[in-house]
Every structure is written in structure tokens, then in C-alpha cells.
Design brief:
By secondary structure, the protein is of the alpha/beta class. The protein has a single domain (2-158), classed as Rossmann fold. Helix content is 34%, strand content 17%. The radius of gyration is 15 Å and the shape is globular.
Length: 161
């Protein structure tokens, strides 16, 4: 219910800049395993080599390891009894007007969708899901690995003119 309300209230102008003009990129993902962590580090490296300023936020589910403690994160411990997210890190991330915001998850997670609904990012990019239309300006149909999803997102985004 909070997510649907946030979608309706969020009046951010949604546009996609040409990739060469984009300066800021956000990456939002759910922690799964070490390989996903390494794949995201590789994406960050590629984006930084392209001259982009990159910020990362991860959702850390219970009983998952936070590899290297390299990225800012939030967890269910940041939820109040009433379901409100109390995380200054997450709040700062969603208030940032990224040129592009990548959601690197193959399965939608309710907390991630909530952040996407509140995000001030201009162009939100994620994996195609029928119910994902309100959360993304660009959706990628990709049924392979996380690495495949990341590469496909990166390649399509680089083609934006």
C-alpha cells in the first residue's frame, strides 16, 4: 500500500539522457551470492571508466553475507513495526536524481520496489516483469544469469542517444 501511494505521489520528471551526457548512475540490488557481488563490481568499474559517478545501495536479506562491506546497505532491521523504512542511507540514495538507476535483480523484491517507487532517478532500468511497468522506464528481457542481465543493461544503455 505504501509503495502504491509513493508511486502516485512521486512527480519526478522521467527522461533518458544520451549515455554520453549522463553523469550519475545508481545501482540497487539484493545480495545473493559472491558471484553477483563480483559482477556488480565489474559493472561499476566499466561505468567509472566511462566517466560516470556511481553510487550503490544493496538490500541485505537475513542470513546473507555482506561481501567486503564495500557498498552501503539496508536490511529488514531498518523497518519499523509499521513497515516504514528508517534508513538515512536509503533515504539519501532515493533522493539522488541519478541519470540512470539500475536495479540488478532477476526477481522483484517488495522493499526494492518501494525504493524504486520513491526514487528521484530520471531513468530507472530493470529486468522485465509484467508488474514492473510502473517502476521502470526501461525494462530488459533477459532470462540468463545476473552477469548476462548486467551486460545486457549496460549495452542497451550505452546505445541511448
Amino acid at each position: 500500500m505504501r509503495t502504491q501511494t509513493a508511486l502516485k505521489k512521486n512527480k519526478t520528471a522521467r527522461t533518458s539522457k544520451p549515455y554520453k551526457q549522463a553523469a550519475t548512475v545508481g545501482i540497487l540490488f539484493t545480495v545473493e551470492d559472491k558471484q553477483k557481488h563480483l559482477d556488480i563490481k565489474e559493472l561499476i568499474h566499466q561505468l567509472e571508466q566511462d566517466g560516470k559517478k556511481v553510487q550503490v545501495l544493496e538490500y541485505l536479506p537475513e542470513k546473507k553475507e555482506n561481501y567486503e562491506f564495500k557498498f552501503d546497505f539496508f536490511s529488514t532491521k531498518d523497518l519499523s513495526f509499521w513497515g516504514t523504512l528508517n534508513s538515512t542511507i536509503a533515504d539519501k540514495f532515493i533522493e539522488t536524481p541519478f541519470d540512470y538507476l539500475f536495479n540488478i535483480d532477476r526477481q522483484p523484491h517488495p522493499l526494492i520496489l518501494h525504493l524504486l517507487s520513491r526514487s528521484k532517478a530520471h531513468c530507472r532500468i530493470g529486468r522485465y516483469a509484467e508488474a514492473g511497468q510502473p517502476y521502470f522506464e526501461m525494462m530488459i528481457e533477459q532470462n540468463g544469469t545476473n552477469k548476462g542481465l548486467i551486460e545486457t543493461m549496460y549495452n542497451y544503455t550505452k546505445q541511448l542517444r
